[in-house]
Amino acid sequence: MAKAIQNNIRRLRFDRKEMTQQELADRIGVTRQTVNAIELGKYSPSLEIAFRISEVFGVPLDQVFQYR
Amino acid sequence: MSFREKSAWISFICILIFGTLYGWHAVDVEWLHARNGNSVAYVFGTMAALVALEIALHVAIAVQSPRDARTPKDEREKLIDLRASRVAFYVLFIGTLASLGLGMHLPGANRFLMAQLLMSAIITTLLVRFGVQIVLYRRDA
User: Fold this and answer.
1) What are phi and psi of B110, to 5 degrees?
2) pLDDT category, A68, cuts 50, 70, 90?
3) Any idea where the domains of chain A sit in the sequence?
4) What is the pTM of this model?
5) What's the ipTM?
6) What would the CATH number be for the domain defined by A7-57?
7) What is the mean pLDDT of residues B84-91?
8) Which of A29, A30, A43 sits opposite B140 (nearest CB)?
9) Which residue of chain B comes nearest to A48, CA vs CA?
10) Rounded to whole angstroms, how far apart are CA atoms B45 and B29?
């Protein structure tokens, strides 16, 4: 089976007192629709955006994104 | 629906209206000889009216969501633009070559026909560009 990039952004937002997609989008400098596309696995972000997301949640990159 | 997607829809519909009116006028003038008016004034008048309409609609959606309108395009939106432009490039390239070929070799072809074919290629290119943008925005939604 082909591998794909998966993410835990929905759970991480939930753990951060239900941080909204808009709030995360504002903090990483993209639109809310882009956060939604990343969360649903429809768009793979650049490394820079991926690092910004992990920085916002304060966790290592591999806790946000997995390749499996 | 995001601001950029609404913007793509507005541009698509305005160009579709312009293309329809332009094509109708061209057929009237060239093949039906139904009009004696000033074609240049008609075409530029229609174009100006639709540009004004497009600006007005963009202002309307910007007022509706000012924050989205002010936000610069992010990497996903730039990628969508690039993908749409790449597809549109091929349409323009093929459309231009086909227009030149048909304009030179079709029996009874003249400068007017070649100009109409080139204009059709440009309008089709723009429709494809905004159409692909809409499809890509919808796919990610």
Assistant:
1) -140, -175
2) confident
3) 7-57
4) 0.83
5) 0.84
6) 1.10.260
7) 97
8) A43
9) B75
10) 16
